[in-house]
Design brief:
The chain is an all-beta fold. The protein folds into two domains: about 5-155, Methylamine Dehydrogenase, Chain H (7 Propeller); about 190-265, Thrombin, subunit H (Beta Barrel), CATH 2.40.10.360. It has strands spanning about 5, 10, 15, 20-25, 30-35, 40-50, 60, 65-70, 80-85, 90-95, 105-110, 120-125, 130-135, 140-145, 150-155, 160-165, 170-175, 180-190, 195-200, 205-210, 215-220, 225-230, 235-240, 250, 255-260. The chain has a four-stranded antiparallel sheet with strand order 1-4-5-6, with no helix packed on it. It is built from no helices and 25 strands.
C-alpha cells in the first residue's frame, strides 16, 4: 500500500537538518525518511514498524544531532520510543493491564519550553487521551474525551491547550495545567461523524479538520467558531496540513490533493 503523510519534521545524517523535511508511513510496516533539499527526492533512511494499525508516528526534533521518534509498538496497546538516527530503543510505553485503553490511535511528542523532559500525548481506542512522561515511563494524566476511538489530536504548547477528534461527531477541547493534569474544556458537535486528522495552523489562529464526509472544516482556534466548510473532494479527507505561509493542503481517498488559500496570517 502506498505511504501516507505522517510528519513534516525530519533530521537526517549526523547533525544535518533537512530544510524541506518529510517522513512517510505506510501499511507496509515501514516508515521512510526523505531528503527533499535542493530538488532531491530520495529515501535516506527507514524504520521497520511492528504494527500494521492506523496510528501515525510522531517526531520530536530540536535541530540536534539526536532526536526522538514515537511509533506504535509490538504490543497492541504499546508505544515504542526510539532515539534517532541510531534507532536505539529508549523505552516502551504500555498502560497498566487494568486500564483497558485499547490501541494507540494517534501520537504527539512535545517538549515544554521550561522543561527538557519529553512528553507524549496519545489518543486511544477507548476514546481517551493520556499524557505520558517519557523519561519516567508513566502516565501523568488521563481523560475520557470521546465515545469512539480518538483518530487524531493536536496540541498548542504555548496555550497548553489541545483538541482531539474521533470516529464520532464530537471535537473535544482540553487543557493541561501546571501540575500536568488534563481537563476537558468543551466540545463541539459536527454535522457528520469521523475525523481523520486535525491540525492547528503555526500561528495558532485557526485549525482545520479532515472529515470522513469529504469536507474540510476550518475553525477559529481560540473560540472554536466555525469559519468555513470546504467542499471539493469526492471521498473521505485523510490528511490536512498548513504551510508556514498559511496555505492549506488536503489529501483525500479520491487520490487528489487540494491547496487552499484562506485567512492569511497577519
Amino acid at each position: 500500500m502506498a505511504h501516507g503523510l505522517a510528519s513534516t519534521t525530519l533530521v537526517t545524517g549526523a547533525g544535518s537538518v533537512c530544510l524541506t523535511p518529510l517522513s512517510s508511513q505506510g501499511r507496509d510496516l515501514k516508515l521512510c525518511l526523505w531528503d527533499l533539499a535542493e530538488g532531491r527526492n530520495a529515501v535516506v533512511d527507514s524504520v521497520r514498524l511492528e504494527s500494521v494499525g492506523f496510528c501515525r508516528s510522531s517526531i520530536l526534533a530540536g535541530g540536534q544531532p539526536r532526536w526522538m521518534l514515537a511509533v506504535p509498538g509490538k504490543g497492541s496497546d504499546e508505544v515504542q520510543i526510539l532515539e534517532m538516527p541510531s534507532k536505539t530503543s529508549v523505552c516502551a510505553l504500555k498502560p497498566k493491564a487494568d486500564a483497558k485503553l485499547g490501541m494507540p490511535m494517534c501520537l504527539r511528542l512535545w517538549q515544554a519550553d521550561c522543561n527538557p523532559r519529553p512528553l507524549l500525548l496519545a489518543g486511544y481506542e477507548d476514546g481517551s487521551v493520556a499524557l505520558w512522561d517519557v523519561s519516567e515511563q508513566k502516565v501523568c494524566s488521563h481523560i475520557a474525551c470521546h465515545e469512539e476511538p480518538v483518530m487524531d489530536l493536536d496540541f498548542d504548547s504555548q496555550k497548553a491547550r489541545g483538541i482531539s477528534g474521533s470516529a464520532g461527531k464530537v471535537l473535544a477541547v482540553w487543557s493541561l495545567d501546571g501540575q500536568q493534569a488534563l481537563q476537558v474544556r468543551g466540545t463541539h458537535e459536527l454535522t457528520n461523524p469521523g475525523i481523520a486528522e486535525i491540525t492547528i495552523r503555526p500561528d495558532r489562529k485557526i485549525l482545520a479538520t479532515a472529515g470522513w464526509d469529504h469536507r474540510i472544516r476550518v475553525f477559529h482556534w481560540r473560540t472554536m467558531q466555525p469559519l468555513a466548510v470546504l467542499a471539493f473532494h469526492s471521498a473521505a479527507i485523510q490528511c490536512v496540513a498548513f504551510a508556514a505561509d498559511g496555505l492549506l493542503a488536503a489529501g483525500s481517498k479520491d487520490q487528489r490533493i487540494s491547496l487552499w488559500s484562506l485567512y492569511p496570517p497577519a
